[in-house]
Amino acid sequence: MVSRAAWAGALLALTGMVWAQTVRIEDPWVRGTVAQQKATGAFMRLTAPENMKLVAAESPVAGVVEIHEMAMDGDVMRMRAIAALPLPAGRPVELKPGGHHVMLMDLKRPLSAGEMVPLTLVFEGANGQRVRQDVQARVMALGGQHGGAMAPGGHGAHKH
What we know:
Layout: H1 4-20, E1 24-31, E2 39-47, E3 52-58, E4 62-73, E5 76-81, E6 85-87, E7 93-95, E8 101-107, E9 116-125, E10 130-140, E11 145-146, E12 149-150
Parallel strand pairs: 1-10
Antiparallel strand pairs: 1-2, 2-7, 2-8, 3-6, 3-9, 4-5, 4-8, 9-10, 11-12
């Protein structure tokens, strides 16, 4: 016979696994790179079922992965790392060029159009519980078509 504590623990673990799959990740892509380029961005649309935050990301193709925002600082557009990106319940949040994005830095090799880049996104719920969700993002060529719109190629090189 299974103890009540063991049953509750198993149910909690299963609930956490199901909960981890509920963040909808749509249209993930990574901007392709050229030789010697050490950074690029990953973009997608995230929809959380409840108020959550994107708090971290990882990828085996990069030595450093951060969540970034582009924001006006006076008359200058600046990019900076942020600790978390709020995801309001049921409202899609766009990670896009010129806005919030996942920054892949210290790239281990060039990223070519058509290949798939594994990403792990870390989300935190209102209760502080963190869950990891894996996604495969297709590399799009610099200046190539993406989602019916031109993916800008002139914004891919960021210096840190």
